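Customer escalation, tier 2.

The customer says the design service returned an amino acid string that "doesn't look like it belongs to this structure." They asked us to rerun it and document both sides in this ticket. The original structure tokens are below, unchanged.
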């Protein structure tokens, strides 16, 4: 994505360094990886998070037997054509109780850059074998995949071609979010969310069911928005190159570039799919893109019984490291101006740092509420809960969502809804509820691995399902027979003209009339 939606949901601890023994050896990140606790220091006004951490268990006897069989299989399959020296990779299991190791022999490529990627292949394969969410690896023999990929990689002469083989191996897992990115792409991924990016201002993602790259949203005022690119449009080509089979970060890298240059983008409109006329190519200039994930306003509101009230409106476009702190400041400011109800707008928010989403949830919730549940590869469910939380405000709250609300947006919406804190208004959300670890490999590349999935506090599945709102909102609601006559149309602002905000205000009126401020 550009910038890539940062789904650093959980993260392994720092990987072990590469060691050298025999001719060439790879010491894989060991099984002492643990899910990052997301623990945060308690603040004076809000509680922290309580997140279970778990050490991965050492291999069972069955797994050890499989490992021995793999070593034998690889030896037979590869030494036959390895006239050159052999390299040895050690896949280690380092738990507090026991350490097991597996030695895998493979032929060393004569091309130095390919040899480096061979080591990366073994690292990536081992991490997938250890942590991938699907223990069947998409119903295939994952051990044989290493052998097959190593054989295909051996005769290659370039690192790019070798990386393509790793990507091909990962694609067989059937999960578009499990992928490897080059060192250059990984550096782009780590760009701070407060950074000035140089690009066109697109948020893109792989559609979970098809793998097609679709636009989640455009940065307001960005070159992409000015070019008429819209939410739901499908990316087909970038600078004349098809984007079939490449992940969102690879596409984002192609879209980024020095300010003052331009990029050609071929898109298919979401409003007329399948028609030749729906496909168009636009040349979009690159500019400095300043990400401002939060904006707020106070909307004057007249209730149905004629009372004048103030509604606080907060729009969050991404979950950055500063999202929770920025929102806390905005809420305190609006509280000081006697705001009596709130609308939190998560429409077209593609996600970001899940920890930021959980921190934002704590602004609105009290006590020890469960914010989200995680389910690992073995089906074990663990709740992520607050510790003695204290909400800044208990005023009524409506959350706006749509098809562009993904990942951390869905987690936040689910947390507020399932805990009875907010009503959801809008459209069904995107449906990305995967937990990914991100590991930097020895050559500076990075492996993104889906290690678990999320369930909402009420145990509703999010991934590929999405969250359905309590109240549907569509544009034709502007012509609804409901009585919106209390609006003074001559002074309606752009926010007040938004049909979904009008519906949200109506729902807030209902909550306030019942005296049920959440």
């Amino acid at each position: 994505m550009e910038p890539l939606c940062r789904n650093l949901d959980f993260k392994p601890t720092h990987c072990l360094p590469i060691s050298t023994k025999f001719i060439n050896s790879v010491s894989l990140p060991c099984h002492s990886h643990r899910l990052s606790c997301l623990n945060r220091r308690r603040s004076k006004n809000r509680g922290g998070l309580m997140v279970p951490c778990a050490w991965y268990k050492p291999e069972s006897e069955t797994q050890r037997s499989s490992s021995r069989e793999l070593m034998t299989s690889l030896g037979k399959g590869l030494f036959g054509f390895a006239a050159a020296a052999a390299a040895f990779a050690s896949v280690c299991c380092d738990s507090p109780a026991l350490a097991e190791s597996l030695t895998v022999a493979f032929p060393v490529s004569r091309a130095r850059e390919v040899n480096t990627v061979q080591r990366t292949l073994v690292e990536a394969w081992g991490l997938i074998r250890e942590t991938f969410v699907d223990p069947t690896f998409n119903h295939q023999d994952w051990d044989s995949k290493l052998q097959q990929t190593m054989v295909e990689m051996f005769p290659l002469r370039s690192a790019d071609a070798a990386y393509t083989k790793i990507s091909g191996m990962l694609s067989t897992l059937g999960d578009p979010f499990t992928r490897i990115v080059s060192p250059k792409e990984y550096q782009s991924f780590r760009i701070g969310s407060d950074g000035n990016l140089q690009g066109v201002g697109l948020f893109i993602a792989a559609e979970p069911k098809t793998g097609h790259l679709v636009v989640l949203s455009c940065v307001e005022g960005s070159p992409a928005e000015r070019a008429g690119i819209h939410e739901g449009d499908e990316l087909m080509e970038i600078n004349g190159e098809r984007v079939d089979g490449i992940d969102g970060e690879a596409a984002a890298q192609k879209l980024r570039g020095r300010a003052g240059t331009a990029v050609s983008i071929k898109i298919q409109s979401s409003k007329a799919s399948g028609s030749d006329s729906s496909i168009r190519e636009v040349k979009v200039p690159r500019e400095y893109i300043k990400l401002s994930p939060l904006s707020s306003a106070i909307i004057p509101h007249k209730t149905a019984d004629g009372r004048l009230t103030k509604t606080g409106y907060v729009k969050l476009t991404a979950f950055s490291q500063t999202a929770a702190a920025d929102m806390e400041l905005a809420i305190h400011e609006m509280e000081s101006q006697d705001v009596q109800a709130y609308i939190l707008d998560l429409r077209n928010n593609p996600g970001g740092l899940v920890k930021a989403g959980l921190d934002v949830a704590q602004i609105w919730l009290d006590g020890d509420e469960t914010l989200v549940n995680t389910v690992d590869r073995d089906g074990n469910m663990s709740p992520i809960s607050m510790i003695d939380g204290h909400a800044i405000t208990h005023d009524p709250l409506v959350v706006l969502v749509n098809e562009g609300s993904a990942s951390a947006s869905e987690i936040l919406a689910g947390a507020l809804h399932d805990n009875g804190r907010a009503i959801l208004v809008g459209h069904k959300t995107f449906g990305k509820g995967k937990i990914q670890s991100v590991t930097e490999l020895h050559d500076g590349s990075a492996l993104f691995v889906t290690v678990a999935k999320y369930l909402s506090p009420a145990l509703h599945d999010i991934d590929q399902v999405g969250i359905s709102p309590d109240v549907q909102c569509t544009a034709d609601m502007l012509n609804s027979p409901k009585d919106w006559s209390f609006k003074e149309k001559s002074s309606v602002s752009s926010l007040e003209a938004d049909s979904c905000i009008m519906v949200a205000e109506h729902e807030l009126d209902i909550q306030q009339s019942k005296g049920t401020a959440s």
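Tier 2 assessment: The sequence is consistent with the input. Confidence is low (pLDDT under 50) at residues 1-100, 476-492. The chain is about 25% helix and 25% strand. Sent an explanation to the customer and offered a walkthrough call.
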